[in-house]
């Protein structure tokens, strides 16, 4: 992801209070700002390129981040609702939740990724076991010195481990802000760009509430949290039944051998 279409609304910059509720929408006719990402930049017509979003005032080095989101209902094809942590610069770190829209009646794709020192390419994708447009659901990132755990409604779906001892970079030195955005990505988001955004359905609206950032280390809390046996079983259930892409299984993409961390997943 090399470029994200993002229009920051200054009135939404402060989201640090738990219980805050806000809505993010995108519609034609707004010219977006641009931010550094890894995926090639889209080049839509100016009246079909827009976005909105918000970011935290504070930067965080480790923490447990919760956000409740209700995704764009109906025909959301071509849109991406993103919720992620990121630092800045060419060697930035990043932890991604991205929700790839689809035509009415088809499920969303939940796209996850981890960047360390500017390198990503660690995508895992899932379908969800509920309708994420019907109600709010909680999406959690637990980031401590040993693990990055992605959770949906307290169910773990992915655990990226610190394997620096094996030569795998891990985000641990760069404080990151929390971002969320809703943007047009119809050159790739739905069926690889085959299905375009239907702008007659605009505005597209996602809703957010109950943001919480727990960044105070505790010996019995998120700072030392890892998956126990029950957590591993839940994650295996999700990955067996709902995971649709795992970079660690993509031999065509990595003909010279899978990334090192895949041997320890």
TrEMBL record:
Pfam families: Glyco_hydro_16, XET_C. Keywords: Apoplast, Cell wall, Cell wall biogenesis/degradation, Disulfide bond, Glycoprotein, Glycosidase, Hydrolase, Secreted, Signal, Transferase. GO terms for biological process: cell wall biogenesis; cell wall organization; xyloglucan metabolic process. Residues 19-32 have a biased composition (Low complexity). It comes from the Eukaryota. Contains at least one intrachain disulfide bond essential for its enzymatic activity. Its EC number is 2.4.1.207. Residues 1-18 form the signal peptide. Catalyzes xyloglucan endohydrolysis (XEH) and/or endotransglycosylation (XET). Cleaves and religates xyloglucan polymers, an essential constituent of the primary cell wall, and thereby participates in cell wall construction of growing tissues. This is Xyloglucan endotransglucosylase/hydrolase. It comes from Musa balbisiana (Banana).
């Amino acid at each position: 992801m090399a470029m994200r279409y993002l229009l920051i609304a200054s009135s939404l910059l402060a989201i640090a209070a738990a219980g805050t509720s806000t809505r993010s929408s995108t519609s034609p006719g707004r010219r977006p700002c641009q931010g550094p990402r890894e995926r090639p930049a889209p080049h839509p017509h100016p009246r079909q390129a827009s976005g909105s979003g918000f970011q935290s005032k504070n930067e965080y080095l480790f923490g447990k981040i919760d956000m409740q989101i209700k995704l764009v209902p109906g025909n959301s094809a071509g849109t991406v609702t993103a919720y992620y942590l990121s630092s800045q610069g060419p060697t930035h770190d990043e932890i991604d939740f991205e929700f790839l829209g689809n035509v009415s009646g088809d499920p969303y794709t939940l796209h996850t990724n981890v960047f360390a020192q500017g390198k990503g390419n660690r995508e895992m994708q899932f379908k969800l076991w509920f309708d994420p447009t019907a109600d709010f659901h909680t999406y959690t990132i637990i980031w401590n010195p040993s693990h990055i755990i992605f959770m949906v409604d307290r169910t773990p779906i992915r655990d990226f481990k610190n394997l620096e001892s094996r030569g795998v970079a891990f985000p641990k030195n760069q404080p990151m802000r929390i971002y969320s955005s809703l943007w047009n990505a119809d050159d790739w988001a739905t069926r690889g760009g085959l299905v375009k955004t239907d702008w007659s359905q605009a505005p597209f609206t996602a809703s957010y509430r109950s943001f919480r950032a727990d960044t105070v280390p505790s010996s019995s809390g998120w700072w030392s949290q890892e998956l126990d046996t029950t957590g591993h079983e839940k994650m295996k259930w999700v990955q067996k039944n709902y995971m649709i892409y795992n970079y660690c299984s993509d031999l065509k993409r990595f003909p010279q051998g899978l990334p090192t961390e895949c041997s320890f997943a």
